[in-house]
Write a sequence for this structure.
């Protein structure tokens, strides 16, 4: 009687991040109190300033620090020491949020705790909708010995944004009716995305849109809102509309950023 052939694993496969259950960062974000989150552009903000901000944010009890930029060059040489300096000075999880590039996928850097992988459902180019996910998974084992946590994210833009549109093929979400928004929400729920990221480069995401998303998303799906958040009242309005986290970046890209940070952080729920 012939025995069944045995499959032998001859190549070592790197341990992959789990997508079947929440990792440490996602669990932290789901359990942390709602509020503001600072976003730093590492290609604008000097490393020393980023380290000082991370220390203060850590002391203030922020949930995480996001490093993000639409434009980037020499990614690894810039980001590896940048993240290492932040991690040495702060206990905050560091999240990456950068667009992918064809041929490479999403950029990664050593030391990052998680990477937000945006599916740009409003893009005319299907690479930025979903194919960039596959390219990242193909290339990642050769780029890093340790996998960061992967946060599957629906990213949508609001208001005119030629910069993002030219680079990533995005079309702003229509807000005159909820038809398109409801389609995106249905995809978000049915595909089990971890979070939704709503962004406006030159204006602000309407609060009623945020409210509509929150009512229809699964309770475990995190809702981020960002874009032109410069005062505490902006944060408060989005939290009252149902956002879990309100991202702010440019508000601290000026000399008196410490006072602005104090004002934005004051009175958090």
């Amino acid at each position: 009687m012939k025995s069944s052939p045995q499959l032998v694993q001859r190549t070592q496969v790197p341990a992959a991040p789990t997508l079947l259950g929440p990792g440490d960062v996602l669990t932290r974000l789901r359990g942390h109190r709602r509020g503001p989150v600072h976003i730093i552009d590492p290609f604008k903000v000097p490393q020393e300033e980023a380290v000082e901000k991370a220390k203060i944010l850590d002391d203030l009890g922020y949930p995480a620090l996001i490093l993000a930029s639409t434009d980037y060059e020499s990614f690894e040489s810039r980001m590896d020491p940048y993240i290492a300096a932040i991690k040495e000075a702060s206990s905050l999880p560091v999240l990456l949020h950068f667009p992918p590039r064809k041929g490479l996928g999403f950029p990664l850097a050593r030391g990052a705790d998680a990477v937000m992988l945006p599916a740009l459902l409003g893009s005319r180019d299907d690479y930025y909708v979903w194919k960039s996910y596959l390219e990242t998974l193909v290339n990642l084992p050769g780029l890093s010995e340790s996998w960061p946590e992967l946060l599957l994210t629906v990213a949508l833009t609001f208001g005119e944004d030629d910069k993002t549109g030219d680079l990533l093929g995005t079309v702003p979400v229509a807000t005159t009716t909820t038809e398109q928004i409801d389609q995106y929400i249905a995809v978000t729920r049915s595909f089990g995305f971890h979070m939704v990221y709503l962004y406006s480069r030159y204006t602000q995401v309407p609060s009623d849109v945020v409210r509509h998303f929150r009512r229809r998303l699964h309770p475990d799906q995190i809702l981020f809102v960002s874009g032109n958040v410069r005062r505490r009242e902006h944060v408060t309005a989005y939290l009252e509309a149902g956002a879990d986290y309100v991202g702010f970046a440019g508000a601290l890209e000026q000399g008196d950023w410490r006072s602005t940070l104090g004002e934005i952080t004051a009175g958090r729920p």
